[in-house]
Specification:
about 0% strand, about 240 residues, Tetracycline Repressor, domain 2, 2 domains, 10 helices
């Protein structure tokens, strides 16, 4: 979808499409998210979206200036889904844990979209709400502003990095994903214990652990470190 700006008065279509649907930004984003889940990045085209919506492809330009504009809206939608229904408990650690797990789960539900969007900065409503909320949790806990920003940065990057890693794994062809998982049993499980005693001693645990995501454990490790910094009253950057 090339960059194209439609004058504001022309940007909203109120007549139904040939399928009887009235277009909206929300409907286009919902459709884009569904198509990306099926077809990956190739789904983000005016032609594909128009076909799915029963609308002329040019109608998409009434709502989004370009593919990238739509992609940012998709990214922001994932952040909105993660925060839906969440309420603060007043316990900073519990609140950060819950927000982290919610964000990770939202990206896990849409791995193809996560591959395209997890690294983007949208500057849109849901992202702004997330940044404001996370900083509020940290500042209310008593972290100085500079420390709150550093912790927010580490928390966000860790969550997005693990989300992208999982998305890349899920996006593999099924045979490649199955082959990767077999490596622990068929390669590591057969190593000479005399040459690799640490792997041999932990092999059963390794095979089980590596079948899932390391994010929950990594999140707890981060929260442990943050709690220790708060107790010590030390800046996170020291």
């Amino acid at each position: 979808m090339a960059e194209r700006v439609v004058p504001e008065p022309q940007r909203r279509r109120r007549r139904p499409t040939k399928q009887g649907t009235v277009l909206s930004q929300e409907l286009i984003v919902e459709t884009a998210l569904r198509l990306v889940g099926r077809h990956g990045a190739d789904a983000l085209s005016a032609r594909r979206l128009g076909a799915a919506l029963g609308a002329d492809p040019t109608a998409i330009y009434r709502y989004f200036r370009s593919t990238d504009d739509l992609l940012l809206a998709v990214a922001d939608e994932l952040l909105g889904q993660a925060q839906e229904g969440w309420t603060a408990t007043g316990d900073w650690r519990e609140d950060l844990r819950e927000l982290g797990l919610r964000l990770y789960a939202a990206y896990a539900r849409h791995p193809q979209a996560a591959l395209l969007a997890a690294h983007r900065t949208t500057g849109r409503g849901n992202e702004i709400t997330a940044v404001e909320t996370l900083l509020g949790v940290l500042r209310s806990a008593g972290f100085p502003d500079a420390e709150a920003v550093r912790i927010y940065h580490a928390f966000a990057d860790q969550t997005l990095a693990f989300s992208s890693l999982r998305a890349a794994s899920v996006a593999l062809p099924p045979e490649a994903l199955a082959a990767d998982r077999k490596v622990w049993r068929e390669t590591y499980g057969r190593l000479d214990p005399d040459a690799h005693p640490n792997i041999a001693a932990t092999m059963t645990l390794l095979e089980t652990e590596m079948a899932g995501s390391g994010y929950p454990a990594a999140l707890e490790l981060l929260l442990d470190a943050v709690e220790a910094r708060l107790a010590a009253g030390s800046p996170a950057g020291d």
